[in-house]
């Protein structure tokens, strides 16, 4: 690994200089999670097998291969899961056509660009959808690298997505701030040795998750304040 030549940002809110910021995508940069939830619960209802919210909460932030396995177990096999998928896909496509940025994204990216901070995305979404969604909201070009589930063998909560992003940036993982909205994402960032910040969307920060974070932020405007030198 070739490390960045010098620290880029010293902030009192973090224990050491920051050399890169790595973002999750869904529910952190792009307001997709609530659309996925609506489509998932509606599709399950449509096929006559309503899904408890507690079960749905367990699949937030989980890579699709693991999610598929969980859904197959829930619906009672691959055949029933396929029926669910047929109901889910058209609902999801319609809702995602309306996807928007989360609050504070542009201001945070502008701030970080202004200080020359290397930026990356580490997402559990596949390459095609990740590229499509980031281009749709106009921020794809703002990241030096985008790591998707297609780029790693093990998804979150394993640290591989974050470690891959740091390696591509040429930055020590310990000098990276990782921004996440999901529990599995925070587990992955912490396991990678990064300074994890949770910005809750669909899930609150539990005691377990809070203990893995350097901060729990209210939104990305709050994060921008944390990443500012006094």
Description:
With 230 residues, the chain is α/β, with parallel strands linked by helices. It has 2 domains: 20-31 and 99-226, 3-Layer(aba) Sandwich (Rossmann fold); 33-96. Helix content is 45%, strand content 10%. The protein has helices at 33-46, 53-59, 64-75, 78-96, 105-114, 127-136, 160-169, 183-191, 207-212, 220-226, and strands spanning 20-23, 119-122, 145-147, 176-180, 195-198, 215-216. The chain has a 6-stranded parallel sheet with strand order 3-2-1-4-5-6, sandwiched between helices.
The CATH homologous superfamily of the largest domain is called HAD superfamily/HAD-like
* Cα-atom radius of gyration: 18 Å
* β-sheet strand percentage: 5-15%
Given this structure, which CATH class of the largest domain is correct? Alpha Beta
Number of strands: 6
- For the record, the count of structural domains works out to 2
Largest sheet: 6 strands, parallel
Work out the helicity level. Answer: 40-55%
CATH architecture annotation of the largest domain: 3-Layer(aba) Sandwich
N-to-C span: 31 Å
Low-confidence stretches: 1-6
Helices and strands, in order, run as EHHHHHEHEHEHEHEH
Label the overall shape: globular
The strands making up the biggest β-sheet line up spatially as 3-2-1-4-5-6
Q: Provide the structure class.
A: alpha/beta
CATH fold title of the largest domain: Rossmann fold
Output the number of helix runs.
10
Give the averaged pLDDT, no decimals.
92
């Amino acid at each position: 690994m070739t490390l960045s030549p010098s620290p880029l940002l010293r902030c009192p809110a973090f224990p050491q200089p920051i050399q890169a910021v790595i973002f999750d995508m869904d529910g952190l940069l792009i307001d997709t999670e609530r659309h996925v939830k609506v489509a998932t619960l509606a599709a399950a209802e449509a096929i006559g097998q309503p899904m408890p919210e507690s079960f749905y909460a367990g699949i937030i932030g989980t890579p699709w291969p693991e999610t598929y396995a969980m859904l197959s177990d829930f619906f009672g096999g691959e055949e029933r899961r396929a029926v669910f998928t047929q109901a889910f896909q058209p609902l999801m496509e319609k809702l995602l056509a309306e996807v928007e940025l989360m609050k504070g994204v542009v201001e945070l990216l502008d701030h970080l660009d202004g200080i020359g901070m290397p930026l990356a995305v580490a997402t559990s979404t596949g390459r095609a959808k990740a590229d499509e969604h980031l281009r749709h909201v106009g921020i794809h070009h703002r990241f030096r690298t985008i790591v998707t589930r297609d780029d790693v063998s093990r998804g979150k909560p394993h640290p591989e997505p974050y470690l891959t992003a740091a390696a591509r940036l040429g930055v020590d993982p310990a000098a990276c701030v990782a921004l996440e909205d999901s529990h599995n994402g925070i587990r992955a960032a912490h396991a990678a040795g990064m300074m994890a910040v949770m910005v809750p969307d669909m899930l609150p920060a539990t005691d377990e998750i809070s203990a893995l974070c350097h901060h729990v932020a209210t939104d990305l405007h709050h994060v921008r304040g944390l990443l500012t030198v006094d």
